Amino acid sequence: MINSNCVTGVIMSRCVVQLLFAMGVICSQGVLASQPHPALNSLIRDTLSNHPLLAAQRASVEAANFGISSARREFLPRPSFSVEQTVYDNDLPGNNPDPLSAVVRVDLPVYTGGRLTGRLDQAKSLENLAKAQWSESRLELSIRVVNAWAGWVGAQLKVQAYLDSMDQHRRLLELVTRRAEQGYSASTDVEFARLRLQSIESELQGAKSQLRSNLAQLKIVSGKAIHESVSVPTELGKIGDALVWLERVQRSGVLVDHAMQNNPSIARVQALLEGAKAEMEIAKSRDWPELTLSAEKRFGGIELVDRIQDDRSRAFLGINTQFGAGFSHRTEQKRLIAEVENTKQLGLAEQRTLIEQIEVDLEALRGAEQKLESLSQALQSSELVLASWERQFLEGRKQWQDLMNAAREKVQLQTQLADVHATIQAAGWRLYLTCEGTDALLAMAEVKADE
After folding, report:
1. Phi then psi for 302, rounded to 5 degrees?
2. E strands, 215-331, where?
3. Looking at the DSSP assignment, which residues form a beta bridge with residue 236?
4. pTM for this one?
5. 182 near 161, Cβ under 8 Å?
6. 102: which DSSP letter?
7. Could you tell me which of 274, 257, 289 has the C-alpha nearest to residue 339?
8. Tens digits of residue pLDDT in 231-276
C-alpha cells in the first residue's frame, strides 16, 4: 500500500490550479472558429468511438456471450436423428438389404461430475476476460491520447515562447545594429545577436516539429485531424477537477483501493484466474463416470434375430468414463494446479506494477508542483533583470553579452515551464484514468458541460 503522507505533498496548491486556468488562447479567434476545438475529453471520446481495436474487441465480447448461451444449453436434452440400413454379405442366399430405418434419440445428462458447470464457469470467465481486455484497451488508448495531448500542450507553449523570444531578439538585433552604425557597439556584438537569433529560430523549428509529431499521434489514435495552428484551449484548467478527486481519495486513504477496483488490468488477471479454476473443475470431473438418460424410437427397422419389424421405443441409462490413456487426466490436473498458481502470481505482479505506476505519477506531480512555483518566480525575476540590464547596457554599465544571456535565460525558463505544464497534464490525467477509469473522466466532462 502507498503511504498516505507521500500523496499529500503532491496535491496542487490553489495558485497552481489558478495558473492552469489562467492559460489563455494563443491564436486568433478566427482560427478557433474555423478549427475543431481539441478538448481532451472530446479527443478521448472520438478515439473510443472510432478505433478499430475496440470494435474488434467488442465483437470478442459478443462472441463470448454466445459462448455462455451455448454452455447453458449443454444442460438441456440433446436430440439426434439418424438413418440406418443393414447390408448383408450378398454371397449368401436370401441376404437382401434391410429397408431403411430411422432413429430418433434424446440424451439427457444426469450427472457429469461438474463438467457442465465447469464449462459454464469457463464461458463466463471468457466473457469477463473479453470485457476486461476491451476496458484495458480503452484505458491504454486514453492514456495514449493523454500523453500526446500533454506533449502537444508543451510543444504549443514552447512554440509561443520561442516566437516571443524571436521578437525580443529581433528588437535587440535592430538595437545593436543601430549602435554599431553609430559607432557605439562593436560589429562582433551584431554577429553575436544574429547568431542568437538563428539559434532561437532553430529551436523554434524543433518545437514545431514536436508539435506536428504530437498532432499526428492524436490524429492517428483518435481519427480526428487537428491543425497545428489551433491554440492551447482553456479546458487545460480542468486538471483541477482531477486534483480535487485526488485530494478526496487521498484523505480517505483509498487511492490504491480505487485502482484495484477500477483498473481493467486487475480485472483481466482475475478473469484469467477464474478461467484457470474453471478448467481445473472440468479436469476434476473426469475422475467420475458420467450418467446419461437416453430414450429412442426406431421406425422401419428389422429386428436382427426374429427378422420382424422393429419399431419399439427404448429408454436406458448410460455410464461413460473419460479417464484418458494411462489415466492422463491426473497429469492434466497437476498441470492445471500449477497454472492456477501461476495466474495468482501474475495477479500479484500486476498489482505491484499498478502501484509502481501510481507512485511514479504521484512523484511527477510532486516535482511539477515544486518546479512550477520556483520557475514562475524565476521567470518574473528574469523579465525584470532583462529590462534592467537593457537600460544599463544603454547607459554603458552592462556588456552586450550580459543582455543576450538574460534574454536566453528568459526563454529557457519559459520552455521549462512548458515542460512542467505538460508533465502536470500527463501525470495528472494518467493518474486519474488509472485509478478511476475512462468512463469517470468522460462523465466528469459531461457534468462540466451541463453546468
Report:
1. -115, 125
2. 290-299, 301-302, 309-310, 313-320
3. none
4. 0.75
5. no
6. E
7. 274
8. 555 444 445 555 555 665 555 456 777 788 888 999 999 999 999 9
